Structures are given as structure tokens and as C-alpha cells.
Amino acid sequence: MIPVRQCLKLTPLCSQIRHGSRMFPQLKRGSFNRITDEDVNLFAGIVGQNGIKTEELDHYNTDWLNTVSGFTELVVSPKSVEEVAAVLRHCNGRRLAVVPQGGNTGLVGGSNPVFDEIVLSLERLNNISHIDPYAGIVECEAGVILQNLSDKVGEHGYTVPLDLGARGSCFIGGNLATHAGGLRVVRYGQLRGSVLGMRVVLPDGQILDGRSNMRKDNTGYDIKQLFIGSEGTLGVITDVSLLLPQTPVSVNMALFGCDSFDDVIKCYRLSRQCLGEIVSACEFMDSLCMTSVNDILGLASPLEDSHPFYYLVETSGMNMDHDMEKLETCIEKVFESGCATDGVMAASKDQARHMMSLRENIAPALKAVGFNYKYDVSLPIQHMYSLVEKIRNKMRKTEGAFSVGYGHLGDNNLHLNIITPQYCTQALSLIEPFVYEEVSRLKGSISAEHGMGLKKANYLRYSKDPSMIAMMRSLKDVFDPNGIMNPYKLLPWND
Amino acid sequence: MSGLRVLVGCKRVIDYAVKIRVRPDSLGVVTDGVKHSMNPFDENAIEEAVRMKQKKVVKEIVVASCGPSQSQETIRTALAMGADRGIHVEVPAGTDANLQPLAVAKIFSKLVEKEKPDLVILGKQAIDDDANQTTQLLAGMLDWPQGTMASVVNASDGSLTITREIDGGLEDISVSLPAVISADLRLNEPRYATLPNIMKAKKKKIEKMTPDKLGVDITPRLKILNVVDPPVRQAGDKVPDVTTLVEKLKEKGHL
To answer: Smallest Cβ distance to A345: which of B18, B33, B195?
Structure first.
């Protein structure tokens, strides 16, 4: 097992970034037109001079992980749905490819250009139009940052049914387009269940107005659901109405140290039995993950010793006494059964925040160590960690490589990360397609929540039947006959 | 030197991360349904006592808290961190907001009479009233030396050397035992209460008392007249150049 400390050199950015076209040398630029000065002037006429950017475009071109980068020369930022429609109408007429972009926090290269696609940024569509304090519904534009949305609805005693580490940068529109998962799926369900209405602009500039605040509405096909998770390939989401849960009054956090993954599963089962409806997060991580956040970010473990595995459970409820009673029963049962050898409970909000930060900072910590090969998969719970062990074994002869597993235990969602000092095709060939084959064999999902983007598009067949993929292509043709919306993403371009 | 007996005080306060709201009657803050935890400085106090016990300088830690019935949870946290037994001086809920440092010092002075500790460690101040008075009052009542704002404490034969955090920097003093000290944030990093210890703590004894039984009059001597939010921060002015800046500063009488 290669200790993290040996891999602690921070590698410079430029050696990490693979231009999308170089990551996939067989990917050829589509037959789109190129931008001219007339196009730029026309866009400036629609969105204003402030809405056009032609210089310093690195942070639009490159993804958060610094692993893919494109060559766009133009970022257009409309500030209303009409401007979005006008921009798309022109792009469609001129056959100019477009990449809609939110907070650019995606992990599969789906929100960045591959070649010279125009970046359509939603950053100026950031208005929170209305909050209904009785029904618990918020209406807002797609460019609202998740943290801001959370703060605003928080003023009325509500919380957004979605929470993830990227909350300070990601946009709600992007969360919808990628159908983001996050920490609270185990409590509030998937995001699409909380969407009451949406407004979308189609690639030809047509505005599809599905805005609604109805809790129940069975009138015809629910077309908005197609756009949720479509990763910007069918249209641009501009507005949404979301159903909001109550802000919990009492939040508690407990972290357990376990000797084996089987023990983690037992802990998880016991905690769900005892805590039931107050569970709001169930996460796990292995010891290398803990060592990484300790060593690289200086975040200390609240447990004295190190353990092979850690299980984190959060509860959220409306009555502190009730929740504490349930938690105490849970803790007694866990220790009686011996499936945890140590554990802590947060005694203050600060401690709770610290414990969650250990889990949330795994990705940033690993990012600083070297090149990250990231896999986000759904697997039957008993097989979740065996995949990590198999990969670790495959990588044992690769210099400086180490593998970690962590993730949303409550959703059977594993985040498998392999880290090498530099990107190297030899390491990649050991990992892919083995990971996808294994997941497919176990009838899991090769992308539980991160989406397909650019990086996984060609592997769609590992989790979807050919008839399904064919139907997806048909739908893509219906909405985007010119193929200008986020090309090279989600659907396989080379299988 | 070994085998000191320590009395540590802790207070249940509104969790420091909670957003405080002023009560509609402007006589205090909303506490109903709000998350409470141990006063952060008291965590440092308990932690220091536990570390001294681990070094075998201390042989018994008694933790005491004055407050409503929920203060027992705070005592249990202290027991889970390593204190040996607890004393809960119960004050009716509602009146606890007016339990002032003078009353607390009197209560602790009676507890000292009863328990006869060699050392009393309190938190420097409570984050709800920010008084920073109890340690000093108690030391005066007992006629014991005091080491307040302690950020380093070292024990040796019958005395303590203490580094204090003061405005000008740091001050080193030496006090003979028995003494009263107050813990500052930099004294140590308080441990988490581990779950096995939380469960063991359930079996540790908490003695219940009341101010009456101790013969202490806790009538407040200070009356809170008004509690208000700080004024809303005004938006600043943006100026286009240095000349305008200087003009504005002169206008407002700052230059």
C-alpha cells in the first residue's frame, strides 16, 4: 500500500490538462461553422457589450479538475430568457456549436468546449424571483449559485433538497442539467422529485415554458424531466420552481471507525433501523482518504487511532430531544454489536461541520496530490468496496499510484479514485475499460451522479441497453436536428 | 507532585455557530428550540484538567455546572471527555438567563468548601454574557491566587507556572496552590467526546443540588434594560478617483 506521503508533490497544472481533442485523438471537430466578427457583433447586440468575453477565457475553457480544456474564443452571457433564445436562434441558423455552462464544477468534462464551441454562460441569469413561505416553493433563474439559494430560502426556514461540496460555485441550472446527487439524496430523494416546473430554451430558440408551482399535475407527458440530466445536450434550462423541505432544527453527526467494509455495512444497517426518518446523510471513506485530508489539508481526525474504514451518519429533525434519544439507542446498538471499534458524536455545530468537512474535502485533497482518475459508480452495497480492492491490485506495479474508495453509502454510490503523479496512458489502460466492465457485470451504473459528459460518453453501452441508446439519439434529433447543443457529450460519438 | 483534586466549571450556552435572534421584548435573546452546547472556553478548561490527569498530576476531576435541567447534558459531555463525577446546581429554567457571575462565584465558593479541591479551573468567559468575572470573584471570595487567561499551565511542587494572554503579549506568573485559573482558547485543543466514553459516562455520578441547599442567594444584582441588534451595516460609497476620495473624507470631517 503506497502511503500518501510519498505522493505529496503538488504537480503543476500544465502537465495535467489534456485538451479534450488530445484525450481522445480520434475525436474530430464536427462540421460546424466558425465564429466571425459579424457573429460577435450580433451577440453583443443581443446581450450587450458586458455580456461578451473574448479574452482571458481559461476558466471557461478548463474544467475544475484541470483535466480537460477546449479552445473557445467567445463566451456569451445573456441576462434574460429572451436573450438566451435570441442567441440560440442565431447559433442554430449559423450552425455554430454551443456549450451551456453554469458554475463549471462538473467532473466529467461536460461543461467545457472540446474545440471552439461558444460557451453560453448562465452567470447573469441569477435572480431569485419568488419564495412562497407557506407552500415552501422557490422560483429562480438557472444561474443562481446553490449556496446563495440555500441562504435565501434559509431566511424563511426552508432548505434546498440538494447539498454538495461545490455549493459555493455551482449553479442550480447546472445541478438540474446534470441531475446532481450530493449528500442528501438519502433523505430528500433525487433532485428531479423536487422540481415542480421549469422553463427551457430549445436549440432553435423556441422557449418551452413548463413553469408551474403545482405539487401534483398529471396533465400529459412530463417533458421537463427529459431536460433534467440531459447535460445541456437538448436545450438550456433558464428557470426552475423547486419544492423545499423545512430547515431542520436539530442536526447531529456521528463518525464511526470500523475494521472492515462488512462492518461498515452492518453499522449502516443498524443506524438506519434505529434512526429511520431522521437520517440525512450516510457516507463512508477508507483510511487513505482520511490520511489524505489529514496530511494535505491539515484537517485532523476526531478519533485518536486510524481505522481501515470510517462511517459518517448525520441526522436532521425537528426536535432535539427525540433525535438524541434515537441516536443514543443507535450508538448503544452499534457498540454492542461490535461493528464499530470507536466513534465520536459532534458536541457542537463546529464539530459537526468539521466532521462533514473531512468527507467533503477528500476530492480537493486528492486533486492536490497528482492526476486523479475518478469513477463514480452505483453498485450493490456488498460489492462496493471489492471494486476498489481489485483496482488497487491491478495498479500495484504502477509507480506512485494509489487507490481510494469513499462515497454515498446510503445511495450505494462509490467514488473510486486512482491517483498517479502524472497522467499516463499506461495507467489509464489498466483502469479502463476494466472498471466499466466490472460495474456492468454487477449490473451497476457507470455514472451514478456525475453524468457522462465528454469522458464517459463512449461507455454508455456499459449501463444502457442498445435500444435505449437508440431512443436517446432519436430524441436528440427531435430537439436538436443541427446537433449544435453541447456536441461530443453524453451520447457516444465513437463506440 | 501528584494526586491533585480539580474542580472544573462548565456552562451550557447557545452554540457559538448559531445565528442569534433578539427576543421581541428586547430583554434578551431567543433560546427556545435553539442549539446549545458547552461554552467553548469551558471545553478548554475540561481538556486541561483531563490532560493533567493523564500526566498523573491530577487524581480526580469534579465538573460542576449551574443551570436548568438541560445543563446535565453539558455535564455528561464533560464526563465523556474524562471528568470523574459531576455536580449539577439546578436553577429553574427561565431564571438561568439572569444567573450572574456574582451568584455563580458564590455557588462555586460553597462547592469549594464542600469538595476541598486543590485547583479550580473555569473558562475565561461565557460567550453569552462575555463577563469574564467569575474566576476573579471566586478567587477574591476564597482568598486564593488567580491565573486568568491562561494559555500555558505547568504544574510543579505545590505551585503552577502560568502563561497569561494579555494585551501587551504574554505574561508568565507563578501561583501557589490552591488556586483558581481561567482557560483561554489557546490553552489546548479540546478532544472530541468519543462514543465509548459517552456510554461509560452514563454510569458516572451526577450529584444534584440547588442554590438554596447551598445557602446561596442568587438574586440578580444587575438588571438588563435593553437588548438590541447591532446597527445594520451601511453600504459604502464608491468613488472614481483619489481627488474625490479626499474631498469626501474632508466633507465627513475625517481629514
So the answer is: B195
Query: Which of B15, B40, B194 minimises the CB distance to A344?
Result: B194
Please give the residue of chain A at the shortest CA–CA distance from B40.
A348
Q: Do the chains contact at A349 and B17, CB–CB below 8 Å?
A: yes
Q: Which residue has the cell 479502463?
A: A432
Q: How far is A143 from chain B (nearest CA, A)?
A: 25
B16 and A348 within 8 Å at the Cβ level: the answer is yes
E-state strands within A8-90: 18-19, 52-53, 68-69, 75-76
Nearest CA in chain A to B74: A347
- A469 has which bridge partners? none
Residue with cell 460519438: A493
Query: CA neighbours within 13 Å on the CB side: how many for A491?
Result: 20
Between the two ends of chain B, the Cα-to-Cα distance in Å is: 62
Distance in angstroms (rounded) separating the CA atoms of residues B216 and A73: 78
Give the DSSP letter of residue A308: S
* Residue A487: cis peptide before it, omega within 30 degrees of 0: no
CB contact under 8 A, A335 and B199: yes
Residue B106: strand, helix, or coil: helix
* CB A339 within 8 Å of CB A390: no
Query: Averaged over B124-129, what is the pLDDT?
Result: 95
From the list B33, B35, B195, the residue facing A344 with the nearest CB is B195
Phi, psi of A107 (to 5 degrees): -115, 5
pTM value?
0.83
Question: Closest residue of B to A328, CA-based?
Answer: B199
Kindly report, residue by residue over B221-252, the tens digit of the pLDDT.
999 999 999 888 888 878 888 999 999 899 98
Q: How far, in Å, CA of B252 to CA of B255, rounded?
A: 8
Q: Where are the alpha helices (DSSP H) in B131-237?
A: 134-142, 195-201, 211-214
First to last CA, chain A: 35
Q: Residue A80's closest CA among A297, A309, A248, A238?
A: A238
From CA A479, how far away is CA B136, in angstroms rounded? 76
ipTM: 0.74
**Nearest-neighbour CA in chain B from A257: distance (Å):** 11
Cβ–Cβ under 8 Å, residues B179 and B160 = yes
Contacts of A345 in chain B (CB under 8 A): 192-193, 195, 198
Cell of A110: 461536460
Tracing cell 436549440 back to the chain, one arrives at A203
**Chain B residues whose C-beta sits inside 8 Å of any chain A C-beta:** 15-18, 33, 35, 37-38, 40, 77, 192-196, 198-199
The dihedral built from the CA positions of residue A433, A439, A444 and A445, taken in this order, carries a sign that is negative
How many Cβ atoms from other residues are within 10 Å of residue A371's Cβ? 23
d(CA A30, CA A10): 36
Q: How many CB atoms lie within 10 A of CB B25?
A: 8
The mean pLDDT value for B47-52 works out to 97
With contact defined as beta carbons under 8 Å apart, do A463 and A440 qualify?
yes
Interchain contact, B195 vs A335, CB within 8 Å: yes
Sign of CA dihedral A362, A368, A370, A372: positive
Q: Please give the helix or strand (H or E) that residue B150 lies within, else none.
A: strand B146-156
A250: nearest Cα among B36, B194, B199, B72: B36
Contact indicator for A162, A182 with CB cutoff of 8 Å: yes
Local structure of B167: helix, strand or coil: coil
User: What dihedral do alpha carbons A234, A236, A239, A243 form, nearest 10°?
Assistant: 40
Task: State which residue of chain B sits closest to A330, comparing Cα positions.
Answer: B195
Distance CA B92, CA B255 (A): 55
Query: Using 50, 70 and 90 to split pLDDT, how confident is the model at A21?
Result: low
Whether residue B65 contacts residue B9, with contact meaning beta carbons closer than 8 Å, is answered with: yes
